[in-house]
Amino acid sequence: MVNIPTFRVLVLGLAVLAGVSGCGARKHAAPETSVLRRGLSGEPSTLDPAAVSDTFSGDVVRDTYQGLTTESPTGEAVPGVASAWTVDASGTLYTFTLRPDARWSNGQAVQAQDFIRAMRRAVDPKEASPAADNLRLIAGASDILAGKAPTDSLGVSSPSAGVLQIKLVAPAAYFPLLLSNTVAFPIFSADTAKRHDATNWVSNGAYVLESWNPGASIRLKRNEYYWDKAHVPIAEVEYQFSADEASQFARYRSGGLDMTDSVPANAIQGLRASHSPELLLAPFLATAYYGLNLAQGPTAHSAQLRQALNMAVDRQRLVDALGFGQTPAYGFLPEGIWTYTPQSFPWKSLTDEARIAEAQRLYKAAGYTPDSPLKLRLLYNSNPIIQQTAVMVADMWKHVLGVNVELTGEEYRVFLESRHDRSRWDVVRLSWNADYNDAGNFLEIFGRNSPNNDEGYASPIVDDLLRAAEASPDPMGRRELLQKAESAMLNDYPIIPLYFFVSKRLVKPYVLGLHPSPLNSAPSSTLRMTPVNAPPQP
Question: How many CB atoms are closer than 10 A to CB 210?
Answer without folding.
Answer: 15
